[in-house]
Structure formats: structure tokens, C-alpha cells
Amino acid sequence: MDTEVLVVGAGPVGLALACGLREHGVAVRVIDKAAGPAATSRANFVHARGSEVLDRLDALGELPQESVRAMTITTYAGDRPMMRIRFGDPGLRTAAAPMVISQARVEAVLRERLAELGVRPEWGNGVVEIAQDATGVTAVLADGGTVRAGWLAGCDGAGSTVRKLAGIGFPGVKVSERFLLVDGHIDGEPALDRSGTSGWVHRDGMLGAMPMPGGHWRLLAYDPAFTDDKPSEEQIADRMRRILPGRTGRPGLRLGEVTWASLFSVHRRLADGYRAGRVLLAGDAAHVHAPFGGQGMLTGLGDAENLAWKLALVVNGSAGDRLLDTYQAERRPLATAVLRGSTAATKVNIADGPLGRFLRDQILLRVFSPAWIQRWITYTTSQLWVSYRGGPLGGRGGRPRPGDRVPDLACERDDGTRTRLYAELRGTWAVLGDRADAAFEAARRRLGDRVVRLHASGSAGQALLVRPDGHLACKGGPAEFGRWLDEWLDGALG
């Protein structure tokens, strides 16, 4: 074998997967057909769940300090504010706050973390052919070389070559016509509020403005009337300059220097499966949807973390590949829910008929105004609610149930050193409980030195075995730990 896992795609999902695998000691190569790292990106918001994943990968770096703390969305009709939603921690005990930050910066920090773990992406060389057998995958690269790997992970985006070569279907539909996307400076009076995102409903199409680091703004406008077939960046920027004052009701606003401009339509697609033998998919290669709600990169990072610890157990010989079937079982239902939600949000935002505009502008904006509704929106978009209790690794009983997210608890190690749960879950499992010696030893017999014992306030009852992705594996004592590990490690071996 040239490597144990070949990751195709050096975007945030591929980099996060590679970091997660390396934390578990798995040999990884990362390749990407692009000539080098992207300098621009469509994604620019990391919800709390995404920040937690980066934290557990030790890849937050200085991102929280660099990010813009713009946690509100204010919707206007002309210059009249109609609704304000505030984002934040909805009481679910996360130490990793949501961030307004460019995906390009997230990728840069992930590359730095991956380099610390001994791996650097290989640019300018994609996959053109793959062949599987009982022991691995042979990938033929664009430069004519080959790579032999035990497993291959396709993290190469919506147009995934890996998905196509693996013969995995990607059905879906087009949801909307064109959106304009522009990054640049905005001048004029009255100045836009940089404490949050502003959005305007308008009969010609919605327009949104999000503050970005460095004094920049990101502008997003639905513009089906813009029919140029293959416009240049300058043409897109000029179009945005023309529509910005009218749709915002602020004739003094001017779009100045533009650093990037793009055009896109919204599609909704979901892969028929996340696995074909020794080939697995994650991120946009498995699901694509509308940008509303900032769910794309967030869902992909969750895919990467879920897959990493499971694939690591299989590669290291601690579990058979039946465990990998739980990856799709846990993550695909979430992608289905995200697709439904983002599609509904898109249809609301682009409604152009009289009835649709009335429902959006007069009814929905008022419905979403109460504080408890806004907390629910924050709760939903954060993905801190995600639980796998209904999946094959889930369970019943009192809370927390197997499959539930365990909060980032303040803990102590055996020597009394203070720490946080998520700071310990870096390629590691955790046993929580003040009287958990026997349970800890039961876990160590199956997981070796990749398990740590921690003490948390209020954990004097049953011991908890926490997965590397922060979800509860099982609770109880050594017997319960042993049964769970036997079922999903020995059992997966078949």
C-alpha cells in the first residue's frame, strides 16, 4: 500500500477528514486537481457545531479572533426594518462560538493543522480512474501515476469525479435561477450596520449584505433577470452596482472595489449512497443544497468527523467494515433534513408571485419575530441539536441517550489538571465518571491508549463512554461498555 487512506479533495471536508484520521494514527495522502488553495469561497459562516468540530481537531487557531462577531440578521422592506434574528449559543453549553469567516481561512488553518500532523496536500493532480478489489483501491491520477490505498474518500465537491467513477447516483432538481455573489467595499450614506447581516425583500429579488473581516462586505442577490450567458466578474460587479441602491432603498450606497464576483444557481441533490465498497463520500460530493442557513460547510465538517473515527477503527484492525455502514445511517438522514430546510428557505426568499410575496413579507416576517422563535432558529441552524439516538449506534433510556451530543464539559484529569471534554477528544475516546475505574479498564481493553478517564461535575452516577466526535457511545458500567464494544467492534468484524 502507498497509503492507508487516499483523500481526494483538499477543501474543508477533505482536510478535516485527513486531520481526523491522522489524529487516530492513520496514514493519509490528500490530493486535489486544483493548482493550489482557493483564495475565495462562497461559504463564509461557521455555526457553533462547525466550530466544535474544528476545536476537536485542534484546528480553531486564531479563527475566533479573526472572525466578525456579526450575529444578527435584520430583514428590511426598503429602509424599514421588519424582523431581527440574533444567533448565538442557545443554552447548549458550547465553548466554540459561531463565526463569520471565509472558508478560505478555515481551509488555511486546517492545512496548518494537517502539516503539524505530517501531511501536506498534493496539488494539481486529480483522479481519473479507480479500481477496487478485496484489499484496496487503485487510483490512476491525471499525471499518469497510480496510488494504491486501502480506502478512498471522495471529498471533491458537487461535481465529484470520485462519485462518478464509483457509479453512485446523484439525483436532484434545480431550485432557483441565478444568484449574484460579490465581495467588495461599500461606501455611501447611510452606512450599513456592521454588527450583523442585513437583508432586503424586493419585488425584483432579495438582496443580502454580510460584513466580512477586513472591512469587506459579501453581497448576495437573487437576479433571474440577469441573463448573460457567461458574464465576466466585472459584468457581475456592474450588475450589483446597479441594483444595490434600489433594492436597499438607500440611493446613496455605492459598491466600490470588488475583490471577487461569481454567479450560481441553486440545486438540491443527494447521493444514492455514501459508500461503494472501499470508496466513501463526504461533504458536497454527497449532498448539495441552497446556501441559506450556512449549512453546507457545517454539514460537511460533521460528515468528516463522523467518518474519521469509524474509518480509523477499521483501518487499524479494531473493527470490521460493517461499522462504516453506520456512517451513512447517521449522516444521510441529517443531509435529507438540511436539503428540505434550505430548499424551503430558498423558495421563501425568491417568491415572486403576489401570494408568495404576501406570505413572506406580511405573514412569515411577523411569525418569526417572537424571541422564542428566534431561539428555535438559532438552535436549528447551529446543528447542536444533532443526535444519532435513532440510528444503529443509538439507544433508549434516560438522558443523555446513546447517540446524543455530550456538551463541552469542564473536566479534570486524574492528576487534578483542569481541562475541557472537547480538548481531550482529539483522536481519543473519553470515559466520564468519578467511580468509573472498572468501566475505564473495560474501554482500555478494546480501545487501548486512545481512551482517557475524566472527572466532571455531576458525573457521580453511571459512567459515560464518549465517542471522539462528542456523542455518547454508551453509559453504565464495565458490562455495558463491554457489550457495546463487543457488538460494534467484534460484531463489525463479522
What attributes characterize this protein structure?
494 residues; alpha+beta; 8-stranded mixed β-sheet; 24 strands; 32% helix; 27% strand
> In whole angstroms, how far apart are the ends?
24 Å
How much of the residues is beta strand, in percent?
25-35%
For the sheet with most strands, the description reads: 8 strands, mixed
Number of continuous helical runs? 13
- Cα Rg: 23 Å
What is the overall silhouette?
globular
Oligomeric grouping of the chains: single chain
Give an overview of the whole structure.
The model has no long low-confidence stretch (mean pLDDT 86). The protein is 32% helix and 27% strand. The strands form four sheets. Strands 1, 2, 7, 8, 9, 10, 16 and 17 form an eight-stranded mixed sheet that branches. Strands 5-4-12-13-14-11-15-18 form an eight-stranded mixed sheet. Strands 20-19-22-21-23-24 form a six-stranded mixed sheet. The protein is of the alpha+beta class. It is globular and about 70 Å long. It contains 13 helices and 24 strands.
Topology overview:
Blueprint: E1 3-8, H1 12-23, E2 28-32, E3 45-46, H2 48-56, H3 63-66, E4 72-77, E5 80-86, E6 99-100, H4 103-116, E7 122-123, E8 127-132, E9 137-141, E10 146-154, H5 161-166, E11 172-187, E12 197-201, E13 207-211, E14 217-222, H6 233-248, E15 254-270, E16 275-276, E17 279-281, E18 287-288, H7 296-315, H8 325-349, H9 354-367, H10 371-382, E19 410-412, E20 418-420, H11 421-424, E21 429-432, H12 437-447, E22 451-456, E23 463-466, E24 472-476, H13 478-490
Parallel strand pairs: 1-2, 1-10, 2-7, 4-12, 10-17, 21-22
Antiparallel strand pairs: 3-6, 4-5, 8-9, 9-10, 11-14, 11-15, 12-13, 13-14, 15-18, 16-17, 19-20, 19-22, 21-23, 23-24
